[in-house]
Amino acid sequence: MTVMTKKGIVDLRSPEEIRAERRKGRTGVYLIAPGMLVLALFFALPVVVLLAMSLYVKPEGGEIGEFVPGFEIGNYATVLAAYWPELLRSFGFALIATVLALLIGFPMAYLVAVRLREKTLLQGILLVLLIAPFFSSFILRTQAWKQILADEGFIAQTLKFLAILPADGHLTATPFAVVAGLTYNFLPFMVLPIYANLGRLDTRLLEASGDLYASPMTSFFKVTLPMSAPGVFAGTLLTFIPAAGDYVNAALLGNNRNTTMIGQIIDSRFFKVIDYPGASALSFVLMVSILVLVTIYIRRFGTKELM
Amino acid sequence: MKQKIGRWFIPAVGGLAFIYLLVPIAYIFVFSFNDAGRTNLDWRGFTLENWQNPCGAPAVCESLAHSLQVGTVATIAATALGTLIAIGLVRYKFRFRKLTDVLIILPLATPEVVLGASLLAQFLNLGWELGYATIVIAHIVFCMSFVIVTVRARVSSLDPRLEEAAADLYASPRAAFWKVTFPLLLPGIVAAALLSFAMSFDDFIITNFNSGTFQTFPKFIYVAATRGIPAQANVIGSAMFILALLVVVIGQVISYRKKKQLENS
What we know:
The complex is a heterodimer of chains A (307) and B (265).
Chain A (H helix, E strand, L loop, with lengths): L1 E4 L2 E4 L3 H6 L5 H28 L20 H42 L4 H12 L6 H11 L5 H8 L13 H24 L4 H9 L4 H12 L1 H17 L2 H7 L7 H10 L4 H26 L6
Helix pairs in contact in A: 2-13, 3-7, 3-10, 3-13, 5-11, 7-10, 7-11, 8-9, 10-13, 12-13
Chain B lengths: L1 H30 L17 H4 L7 H32 L5 H9 L6 H15 L5 H25 L3 H9 L4 H30 L2 H6 L6 H9 L5 H34 L1
Helix pairs in contact in B: 1-11, 3-6, 3-8, 3-10, 6-8, 7-8
């Protein structure tokens, strides 16, 4: 709708209304077709192939790595019976790492986004340091942790000297090291979305709640946290999902029967044992369990802003 | 009293967390100067030799070249395809909208090991040989979803009236797009491309599933980790980090200047 005024023709519609009148026609299809085709052929179809392969059977007298299409649901029972501890451990480690990353990451994001709002230079420097780890090899950093925490390293020796760690104790090859590694590697994924949300937090709201005799604690739980909920929500998902499937931390920092995660099993089933159906079944179980967990989480805490 | 605790608590925890984030990076940098030969496990004295001759250890530079190549090709393809999708989805009407949304979001909710395994199952089924081509395809797929999400946010926040204003001033749709829409989208597209490159360059798990014997930089380090990573890898890791710092700093300076310009005008 347009009207003539003294200033000329004015469009009264809001951007939302204009957007609602989305153009129809072929152009849109041409724009999305190539990319969607790639996603269909190399994401959707592979997941279907993975599902099919998880039901393959070994022919009688077949060689290692020889499988024929079948419908063996028993593959799932077999791998679940053998590897349920690793599956549970992966989710447990990922959950602990996510909680730790939130506890560490929130103050980081708050420091940069709110406390340093007036100090542009320092804020810029810390923001750069937050983004920079994305550009330095994460395997190199994980390996660096391994060497820092090594038995003959400075930290382990000091802890042993102070008798915090027993003389024959280790820091690496423990669940502690793996969880610390996961927390470390996915920390920026937690901090950046929270930072993006806190950046928009109006600090006058905190002053207002203070004026209304809310304690800082109350202000935090009633104002800051709810205002940053979409960032916390996105950050927890971006940390939990990759952490549950990761096996680099478990392999480099753990490499021990108490730290094996499901990713390591899938990798070794594919490449060492050459058990394609078993590996596919485990992958599919991992994918579905994460989707179920994420769906429950979204239903319970989700916000529409996510999409 | 409580106020005071709040005052030092946040900087203290935040500061410690930044140290936690940076310790391994500092370690990598320091040990890039280690006169250690092939293993680089403990400190044996300062040398500049690794920096003067970063290709000194076998396979380091070859795998680096592979990673740069894969990253460049995958980034260009993923950014182009993803940007087209982002514009198309925001600006045009579609049936099957739910389906396209699922296709875009699902890869983000799927752990890398599953993405890698499903693509491997597909390539095994098709009988394709694993190598350069399969890695590039895998990287395009996992980078594209990130590009779509990033650029789509940018397109949605764009005021469609700007383009209509251009049309009112007799710009052809093509001219309106290239003169108005595209320049406004460019920062988002550049950010998405940088993110894609960083993820592709650093990816290990998906690459490991779909690369066969093709060596990338992360794969090289992972394999070398069992018998000791050569110091030259630390040189390359540090150099990449410094380069990235420069890119991010330049980006920050540009956006800061633009802000200033807008404020002054």
